Amino acid sequence: MTRPDVLIIGTGMIGLTLGYELLKRGQTVRLLDQSTAGQGATRAAAGMLATDEELPEPLHELAALSRTLYPELVRQLLDETGLGSGYLEQPFCLHRGNQFLTFEQVGQIDSRLVTQALRSAIERRGGVIEEDTSVSQLVRDKQRIIGAETNRGLRTGRQIIVASGRGSEAVLRSIGITIDTCPVKGECLSVRLMTGCLDRTLFNEQVYLVPKADGRIIIGATERSGDESTTVSLDSIRLLVNQAIRLYPPLAEAVFVEAWAGVRPQTGDGLPYLGPVDGIEGLFVATGHHRHGILLAPATATVLADCIMGQKPKVMLGAFSHQRQGEKTK
């Protein structure tokens, strides 16, 4: 591929959804990942499309847009690739403090399946995904972004989006952009019931249980601030299992499937950095979604694609500016 219209750094759920949306709008796209597409925090996600009760108020409009977009996104991916995304709508039961709330139809997806479908759709539309390609620094000419230096050489783009999760902080710092994210490690496990089934998501302040389309139940998640490792401790498994059985006693007879961990970037105010980078033409950021990257991916892709195409974004992005906490460019 010659110089693409858009170079995207990061191929988690945010980066892949951005790539797909931009390709649908006629842009040429190259995506870079230091490891394997769809891994990292995305692969570790339980896939809940959270209710507003779990979100900071400034995210409500963005989340509502995403929930509207999801059914069409998964339908398009199935039509184009033949790959399902594990999309379900089922009851969601929330116990928080003295509140017991039931939402009758709350969506969820399988993060591993949807990223496979997105990758396939991107490649079918002519997008390029380069794995094992780590970015050492961004390159600019005065106030215009040019490209990114990588272990495979310079990669250029007319416009560049930094969407590499926790890694976004170092990439942006290479040209004097400071954002504030903290790594938060989350550990999860999955089990299968040998008899019966769980037909709804259960969520309280200690643990959540998310039944998937393939019969697994995901149990999560620990939150270990400042920990960037992806190991899973036996103590964490014990804690999650005990809390899960208290919430849903039939799990005592369940069979263990696997355990895993992911590291999510959390900002100080709980809001992502989303939109153009002030003072550097052609550079955009989409990171810091923390626990809500899966939920917010379609809306993030839509509003950033609007910006890149010179259109008014469907959600105003002022609350998500990288400068809202005083960050400055050098």
TrEMBL record:
Keywords, ordered alphabetically: Oxidoreductase
Transmembrane segment boundaries: none
Tree of life domain: Bacteria
InterPro entries: FAD-dep_OxRdtase, FAD/NAD-bd_sf
One GO cellular component, as annotated: cytoplasm
Family matches, as Pfam families: DAO (PF01266)
Domain FAD dependent oxidoreductase residues, every copy: 5-87, 103-306
MF terms (GO), sorted A to Z: oxidoreductase activity
Keyword Oxidoreductase: yes
PANTHER family listed in its UniProt record: GLYCINE OXIDASE (PTHR13847:SF289), SARCOSINE DEHYDROGENASE-RELATED (PTHR13847)
Name of the featured protein: FAD dependent oxidoreductase
